[in-house]
Specification:
The strands form two sheets. A six-stranded parallel β-sheet has the order 7-6-5-8-9-10, sandwiched between helices. A four-stranded parallel β-sheet has the order 1-2-3-4, with helices on both faces. The chain contains 13 helices and ten strands. The chain is 44% helix and 12% strand. Helix 6 links the parallel strand 6 and strand 7. The protein has two domains: 145 residues, Glycogen Phosphorylase B (Rossmann fold), CATH 3.40.50.2000; 172 residues, Glycogen Phosphorylase B (Rossmann fold), CATH 3.40.50.2000. Helix 5 crosses helix 10. The chain is an alpha/beta fold.
């Protein structure tokens, strides 16, 4: 954050994910209590008009202090099943917003269905998107993206399948920095005339929208942002939920799978053969059906309506009507 020119101040508390008994088991509650007056002092100094939080453990003392100081707050939860910190802090927030309809029943009222705030996607045609990424046109495009971290399961499946995949499609593989060198070596091991069909990237920042616009199929995890961007782009998915963290990602993926926008592959089942099977969708009728189902779930206006809620809290004006806000979330701002 400091490198982006944003001010960052830390509280004393640390992650509440301690599992094994240790000294931190005793110290964590003390750190949490000590962080409450620390957060209150920071808020008294800053006097914010409103607070926005995604509900991690750091939100607990901040929202508690905000409630004591009567500072309005908006908590946004992106998972279908709220985590422990969100469940602990949700009642402290003035208003809550969620990505999935089913989450509203797990949180206090008022809770608004906004979807997941995402980057603007489009308008960009496939040819323009392909040119921005430097990939050949005229072939289906498979986008493989594990999220912000390197995913060994995806990397191993790619290593096993890439030779077959590049005979049938272009592969855009976002690896993260830790796996990028191995992906480059994998590309260099391909026949020279096929190397341009396998394009690894450590990250795609501004060009991530181009990757989504160019792709015909996405293989990736079930994080809230990944699912939301795929739906907004009308992009079918082979979704491989992260198997840990109380299976939150499997719950996230359920909506897309049930709607026919995605097919689920368990993490332990993903291998080279499954990636090759994914490519079988190219040229078949199922891909268009999946794309239409994905598009029907998209909420490209999620960022705008979440901002509307936050500005209303800051200004002290009436909050938007829930049904109006939900409809607006489905249209691009």
């Amino acid at each position: 954050m400091p490198s982006a020119g944003l001010r960052l101040e830390r509280l004393w508390l640390r992650s509440l994910r301690t599992v094994d008994a240790s000294l931190d088991t005793l110290l964590d509650p003390l750190r949490l209590l000590a962080s409450l007056p620390q957060a209150a002092w920071k808020l008294l100094r800053w006097r914010p008009d409103a607070i926005y939080t995604t509900g991690g453990y750091v939100a607990i003392p901040v929202l508690a202090a905000a409630a004591l100081l009567r500072i309005p707050s908006l908590l946004w939860e992106g998972n279908q099943v709220p985590g422990r910190s969100v469940r602990l802090s949700a009642r402290l927030a003035t208003v809550r917003a969620v990505s999935f309809a089913g989450t509203r029943d797990r949180l206090p009222s008022p809770t608004y269905l906004t979807g997941t705030p995402i980057r603007a996607i489009g308008p960009m045609d496939r040819e323009e998107a392909a040119q921005r990424l430097g990939i050949p046109t005229g072939l289906p495009v498979l986008l493989v993206f594990g999220g912000s971290q390197s995913v060994r399961r995806l990397d191993e499946a790619m290593a096993a399948a890439v030779g077959d995949l590049v005979e049938r499609c272009v592969v855009v593989h976002i690896t993260g920095p830790d796996s990028f060198a191995r992906a480059v070596a994998l590309r260099d091991s391909l026949p020279a005339e096929r190397q341009e069909r396998y394009r690894p990237f450590a990250f795609l920042h501004e060009d991530m929208a181009a990757a989504l616009s160019a792709a015909d199929l996405l293989v990736g995890r079930a994080g809230s942002s990944t699912l939301a961007e795929a739906a907004a782009a009308g992009l079918p998915m082979i979704v491989v939920p992260y198997p840990h963290a109380a299976a939150h990602q499997r719950a996230n993926a359920a909506e897309l799978v049930e709607a026919g926008a995605a097919r689920l592959v368990a993490d332990e089942d993903l291998d080279g053969a499954r990636l090759r099977q994914a490519a079988d969708l190219f040229g078949g009728p199922d891909l268009a059906v999946m794309a239409a189902a994905a598009r029907s779930l998209g909420r490209p206006g999620a960022a705008a309506v979440t901002a509307d809620l936050l500005v209303a809290l800051a200004d002290g004006t009436a909050l938007p009507e829930a049904d109006v806000l939900e409809r607006r979330s489905r249209t691009a701002p």
